[in-house]
Amino acid sequence: MDAFDGGDGVHAGTAGIPVTAMVSTGIVIAWFVALTGDALIDHRWLRVAVLPAALGAAWVGIRVQRRLAHRFLPPERVPSREHFVGRVCVIRTSRVSADFGQAEVTADDGSTATVQVRTHEAGLVSGSHALIFDYDADGEFFRVAPFDSALDPHRPAV
Q: N or C: which terminus of the chain carries fewer CB neighbours within 10 A?
């Protein structure tokens, strides 16, 4: 596994840690090792080894930080369009047909998205509720059917 390949696509291999935090950790470790090595080593020719030792210690420290974060931090959930399947949406265009329509759907985190929707059923107009039951990846739209909003399990409690 490469330092820039996290395997799970999370933050370019940083296991969810910001790159600036990892670089800062490396700088602090390298500074500490260089300062300690300079203070403890009296022989001038041994001080030449302090810089490579400091850089090596920083590299090891960053790798340990990355592994600990990968082990103890939960993986980032990347939302996808398939997460909207099974949700209720609100129609935002004047009508929905087999080749036209948009709706607003709410995600788990409370954010909303305007998505393309299609149906072969009549009666879906602006403000009506529909159930998203499929996603067409080729056409990049959701298939919807009329739905009674009172039955929505994701409806916010009032």
A: C
- What's this model's pTM, rounded to 2 decimal places? 0.50
- Residue 103 CA from chain centroid, whole number: 24
Describe the chain by its helix, strand, coil percentages, rounded to 5.
35, 20, 40
Residues 6+ apart with CB under 8 A from 139: 118
Condensed to tens digits (0 to 9), the pLDDT of residues 48-87 reads 899 999 999 999 999 999 888 888 887 766 667 788 898 9
DSSP state of 9: -
3-state secondary structure of 152: coil
Tell me the chain's radius of gyration from C-alpha atoms: 27
- Name the residue ranges covered by the structural domains of the chain: 19-72, 87-151
Asked if 75 and 8 touch (Cβ cutoff 8 Å), the reply is yes
